[in-house]
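Action item from last week, closing it out:
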Amino acid sequence: MLKLLPEIVTAKFLEKYPTEDKQLGLARKRGLFLNEHCLEVDLFKAGRHKSMCQSHRSFDDERSGKDAGAAMEATPASLDTVAF
């Protein structure tokens, strides 16, 4: 993400933020955000697991998919981020 920062601020302005922590703060202030995973997984982990699981169940025609959605909703800590 920090490699993108010079694309939205000048090099001279960036000199005011010498450390990575300060540069990350600047990036967020300027609207530069990155997910740790994909959007769905990050939403799930941010407390939206119930709505994500309900959506998963409503779009999946297979019984196994509906069961997986119910299991993830019941035990959010068991989320397999790769499978999801």
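Closing note: The CA atoms of residues 22 and 56 lie 38 Å apart.
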